[in-house]
Design a protein that fits this description.
two-stranded antiparallel ribbon; mainly alpha; about 230 residues; single chain
């Protein structure tokens, strides 16, 4: 594997194919847990650990898993690693576990992880799959942390729990509420689109299934299910 290719696997997820800002995946935890920067880091690193480990295992088993049951197999592998991560967080980081709540076990159905499993890990060797997982995970973590920093700064006047602006500016609680989350998310997507447009890349035009990289796989799987019935 060429060095340039290795570097591209790591950097794609940061901006060019950022899973949140460019592919618009994983928006549920993105909007829900980013009321504080530390929450963004916690969720991002947990998802990264699951993403890397599941990518490696799925890549190793790519020639073993039957095509017709690949989606259930991928979810089973992902769920196993999510359980391990959840137990570790509960044991060593109880405050983070409490802050993330139900969204930690819901990493199992995070479409970023399933999309990378279907679109990349199941078609590539172990090292590229691991690097792809790291790159996408870092992009996810960076986005969540940035959103958390903005919302915590304007909503609570603090950064990582340390008071910054509360003495000079009254905190705007709306930034800690769902409308504030959507506003910050929209601004960051707009900035990402502006940067992409300046670089000659196509900006995000659709969200949800229409923009999901695993849409074709889901359509094929649903078609197989319908045919079986």
């Amino acid at each position: 594997m060429k060095k340039s290719n290795s570097l591209s696997y790591l950097t794609n997820g940061l901006l060019k194919e950022n899973p949140v800002l460019r592919l618009v995946l994983g928006t549920c935890p993105t909007l829900a847990v980013t009321t504080a920067a530390i929450n963004g880091i916690g969720m991002g690193l947990a998802a990264t650990a699951v993403l890397v480990c599941s990518n490696v295992v799925i890549s190793l088993l790519r020639n073993v898993i039957p095509d017709k049951v690949r989606i259930p197999a991928f979810i089973t592998i992902i769920a196993g690693f999510v359980s391990v991560v959840q137990l570790l967080v509960k044991a060593f980081l109880p405050a983070i576990d409490k802050a993330l709540g139900i969204y930690l076990p819901l990493i199992v159905v995070n479409c970023i992880i399933l999309a990378r499993a279907e679109m990349f890990a199941s078609k590539n060797k172990v090292l590229p799959s691991a690097l792809d997982g790291i790159g996408m995970g870092l992009g996810f973590t960076a986005t969540l942390t940035l959103m958390g920093l903005i919302r915590e700064l304007f909503g609570a006047g603090s950064i990582f729990g340390l008071t910054v602006t509360a003495k000079f500016i009254d905190p705007m609680i709306v930034f800690l509420l769902p409308p504030g989350g959507f506003f910050v998310f929209g601004v960051l997507v707009a900035v990402s689109n502006a940067i992409a447009k300046k670089q000659g890349k196509k900006p995000v035009e659709h969200t949800g299934c229409a923009n999901c990289p695993s849409r074709a796989a889901c359509d094929r799987y649903n078609g197989e299910e319908a045919a079986a019935e």
